[in-house]
Every structure is written in C-alpha cells, then in structure tokens.
Amino acid sequence: MAGSETHITYWRQQLPDKPLFPDALWSRPERRNTAGKLLIIGGNGYGFTAPAQAYAEVQQAGIGEARVVLPDALKRTIGKTFTAGQFVPSTPSGSFSQKALADILDMSAWAEGVILAGDFGRNSETSILIEKFMDTYRGKIVVTNDAADYIINTPAIILELSDITLVINLGQLQKLATSLSFVKPFTFSMDLLRLVEALHEFTAAYPVNIVVKHLGNTFVSVGGEISSTKSTEDDNWQIKAASYASVWWIQNQEAPFAALTSAIYSVGRS
C-alpha cells in the first residue's frame, strides 16, 4: 500500500502529532470578537442533544460567538436553562415548522456560517423548511447527523450551492452518491486507496466538501484534494467534527481544504 500511495498527488496523510497546515494553527484569531459568528440549528420537541453538543464543541474549538436555533416546543423545558437558545415556530409534533423560515433567515444573516446539527426527526414540514432555507441561504453551511439525510433525499440542493460541507458516515455517503447517480460506488468493504480515488472523483464532480470516517481514518475531500488523519473510534464523532469544521472554515474562509484538515487535526488533540 505504501508504494501505491506515493504517486497519488491529490492525497496527503496527516499524522496525529504533525499537522499538514501548521501555519493555519498559528494564525488563528486571538480575540473572540474576531473569531467568527456561527448559527447552530437543530433539535425537536423530544430532544436537542445534537445542537447542545455542537454549542459546547464550538466553544472549545474557539468560535467568537454562537447562537442556537431550536423549535419553540422546547421552550417550556429548557428556555430558562439554555440561555443560548433562540426559539422559532414548531409543528404540533414538536419539529421545526415552515413558519420558522423567516426567523431562521434573519438569524442566519447575522452569522458567518451555519451548522445544521441534527436531531430534526422525521417530519415532512421540516424537510420543506430545510429545503427552502438552503435554497435561499448562501453562506457557509455544515450539515451532519440526520440533517444530512434531508440533503441526501433532495440531492439537487448540492448542485445549487458552492459553500457546503457534509460531515457524514459512509452509509450516508453511499446513499448520496446513489441519489446523484455517481458511477463509482462507496462500499463498506472498500480499502483506503479505493475510497480516496472515489472521493477524489466525487468532489471533483460535485461542489460539496466531504468529511467521512473509514477504517480508522477521517477523510477530508475538497475539490478533488484528499487528506486523511488517523482517528480513534467515537460514536459522536460527526457532531464534534462538524463543530470544529465550522469554526475553522469561518476563520479560514479562502482555504477550505486547509481549514477542514486542520479542524480534524484539532479534534484529535482536544
């Protein structure tokens, strides 16, 4: 395998103790007021673990200011304790309502980036809301957990955007590639080399950044460039990686590959 890797110019391997982009680590904002503003969206009436975890993780990652948008079905239970929460209309079942669109767009205008963090649940009205939001919003957006399932089911959204990062598992990537009729399959049995080749072709063909984990490595793919970083097993890796990716991307807006790769390095060091 080592000999096969040497001629792949688009694949770079990052060691856990040696960042690929050390300059990015040393040039981060030192003051909170210059470290970016991030909007986190997620939750439903029965849970908000994903957005709450994302809020905690982006603080650790060094965001300047973060706000969290939640359905107002949660207001009675957490409104007084979770002070970062901003509440918008929900459906009778506790999911985001289409009526929340105007409020979410207003809040997103304040931010330099958005995370769709997950815990949205399965709701057709929420699906329409997410689709309309992504049709309108043109900032940097990171999507993970069950929020990515909405994108997978409406893959044409990806073709309309230029600043979207999906932090997904291999099963979700497999479904996305199938939805887009991508000719090279992503399978759980593929080795690292075949995954790298497929990611290279996929992100060269579609305007989406991919962060995915396979065989003990976290891969970042941007515009056909690939980085891989050895990583430990973590059931909650997606929300952590998405949080760090959002912060680093906001702070390195002109260099998404370096930003996302450095984010994964930082996740491993946190």
Query: Quick one: how many beta strands?
Result: 10
CATH topology: UDP-N-acetylmuramoyl-L-alanine:D-glutamate ligase
Structural class: alpha/beta
Please tally the helical runs, counting DSSP H or I stretches of 4 or more residues: 12
SSE series: HEHEHEHEHEHEHHEHHEEEHH
The order of strands across the largest sheet is 1-10-9-8-7-6-5-2-3-4
CATH superfamily: Ribokinase
State the helicity in percent bands: 40-55%
Largest sheet: 10 strands, mixed
What would you say the CATH architecture is? 3-Layer(aba) Sandwich
Low-confidence stretches are 1-6
* Domain unit count: 1
CATH first level: which class?
Alpha Beta
Q: Over all CA atoms, what is the radius of gyration?
A: 18 Å
Question: What this model shows, in words?
Answer:
With about 270 residues, the chain is of the alpha/beta class. The protein has a single domain (about 1-270), classed as Ribokinase (UDP-N-acetylmuramoyl-L-alanine:D-glutamate ligase), CATH 3.40.1190.20. It has 12 helices and 10 strands. The chain has helices at about 1-5, 20-25, 50-60, 75-80, 100-110, 125-135, 145-155, 155-160, 170-180, 190-205, 235-250, 255-270, and strands spanning about 10-15, 35-40, 65-70, 85-90, 115-120, 140-145, 165-170, 210-215, 215-220, 225-230. It has a 10-stranded mixed β-sheet with strand order 1-10-9-8-7-6-5-2-3-4, with helices on both faces. A hairpin with a 2-residue loop joins strand 9 (about 215-220) and strand 10 (about 225-230). The longest helix is centred in the C-terminal third of the chain and has 15 residues, at about 235-250.
